[in-house]
Design a protein that fits this description.
single chain, 163 residues, alpha/beta, Dihydrofolate Reductase, subunit A, eight-stranded mixed beta sheet, two-stranded antiparallel sheet, 10 strands, globular, NADP+ binding
Length: 163
């Protein structure tokens, strides 16, 4: 099962200048708990936004740069190649950015989306979720608090069967 995992604002904003535009500690904890022990597939810019590779995960970086070598990652040049490398993993995660989400959407079986209840100026956006293809199966609302500046909701979608 290929899972897309993302945090996106109401206007589908993901980030600006290769960084997130909000800080939600509980969302980071959820991301870590879901992705630890799995392959994480991302674009080069997303990989380069990390101070260092994330522990206990296999990093697969999709880039057009033929000679790219990031420390602690496997480099590939297509989403198909990334998914092929992750085929032994029962749940690889596509973790961004915007272009990689678009490329990965046709291959995904599940979306784990943290919807941040605000709008942001951004230069990277999450693709629209086509509700003809996706079914919302769980929704868990979290109000803002002393650690979280914005309300947010964890949304889990699964691809509708074609039957």
């Amino acid at each position: 099962m290929v899972t897309i995992i993302a945090a996106a604002a109401e206007n589908n904003a993901l980030g600006k200048d290769n960084d997130l535009v909000w800080h939600l500690p509980d969302d980071f904890k959820r991301f870590k708990s879901l992705t630890t022990g799995h392959h994480i597939i991302m674009g080069r810019k997303t990989f380069e936004s990390f101070p260092k590779p994330l522990p206990n995960r296999t990093h697969i970086v999709v880039t057009r740069q033929k000679d790219y070598q990031g420390e602690g990652c496997i480099t590939v040049h297509s989403i198909e190649e990334a998914l092929q490398l992750a085929r032994e993993d029962d749940q690889p995660f596509i973790i961004g950015g915007g272009e990689i989400y678009k490329l990965g959407m046709p291959y995904a079986d599940k979306i784990e989306l943290s919807r941040v209840h605000a709008g942001f100026e951004a230069d990277t956006f999450f693709p629209e979720i086509d509700l003809n293809q996706w079914e919302l199966i769980t929704s868990e609302y979290h109000p803002k608090d002393e650690k979280h500046q914005y309300d947010f909701t964890y949304l889990t979608y699964i691809r509708k069967s074609l039957s």
